[in-house]
Amino acid sequence: MRVFIIAKSKRHTRIYYYFKKAFQRQGHRTRWIKYLKLKSYLGERAATVAVDKLMAAAKPDLLFFHGRDVSCELLNRAKKRMPVVMYYDDCIKGSRRSFEAVVEQGRLADIMYLTNRGEVARYRELGVNARFITGGCDPVAHRMIDSPDPMYQSDVAFIGKPNTPERAEFMQLLAKKFDLKLWGSGWEKYGLNVAAKDVYAAEYRLICAGAKIMLGWNIDPTIELYFSNRTWYTLGCGGFLLTAYSPSLEEIFGRGRELDWFETVEQCYDKIAYYLQHDEERREIAAAGYDFAHRKYSYDAMVNRIIEDVQEMGIRSKV
Length: 319
Hints:
This protein has helices spanning about 15-25, 35-40, 45-60, 70-80, 100-110, 120-125, 165-175, 200-210, 230-235, 265-275, 280-295, 300-310; strands at about 1-5, 30-35, 60-65, 85-90, 110-115, 130, 155-160, 180-185, 210-215, 240-245, 260. It is an alpha/beta fold. The chain folds into 2 domains: about 1-135 and about 300-310, Glycogen Phosphorylase B (Rossmann fold, 3-Layer(aba) Sandwich); about 150-295, Glycogen Phosphorylase B (Rossmann fold), CATH 3.40.50.2000. It has a 6-stranded parallel β-sheet, sandwiched between helices. A 5-stranded parallel β-sheet has the order 8-7-9-10-11, with helices on both faces. Strand 3 (about 60-65), helix 4 and strand 4 form a beta-alpha-beta unit. Helix 1 (about 15-25) crosses helix 12 (about 300-310) and helix 3 packs parallel to helix 4.
């Protein structure tokens, strides 16, 4: 199958680079188009025409795109030639300003994949063929390594920004009790030091190797099966993950088996203290999480699911 991917680079998470490599590993000829960069050089109209001509010449069998990274006009042109599939890894709360645009693009997609199950029904009510997919890890980028550099070592680490007041307040409290390293910008205004304002993909495994406990905290803890790609990246790098609970998390993970979770600040304190005193148990859970993520929730597994869904729907190339 010939696949076109239209998405930004996302240099911090490299989501679409990992998707590209996964499509290629599964034997699909894959080309990555950075439409927004072309648009910045040529303008929207010229960029749309250029990519449309490229699709007409290359005759891809599938267009896989990220919401907001392509124009609706180009999607309408693409739909005449091939199935179009959208991947979107943000929740409604996190994309509130652009929600209408996301819905518009979702309606144009044959399938829109969401990385949370709780909002699938809402999108379907709005005329989007939404489906839940989990996210995953990459077999090359996400792996266990040693991290002897003191810069990456800590008892507890968190990667992310203070996107909500609750998250910022929580980290302020944790920093008073534990050796906490924060990776990401914006914490200074809350009186917290950061190890680095920007974290790039290659550093993720170093942070996971250096921290005894990696914390997870989602922007909206009320959404069923919503958690960021950092969940899979942490497990894929062999990190021990202690994450805030999201509804139905136990459908995928075993508590204390591949990771652990907390439901209150006090419970988080207790679990951090416990696992810092139980190294072997912590390492066993991290090893189980690593195996689980790579065996069942890789980018390759997601690509296979996407291809199967497209074929099951009977969506065929229209050229």
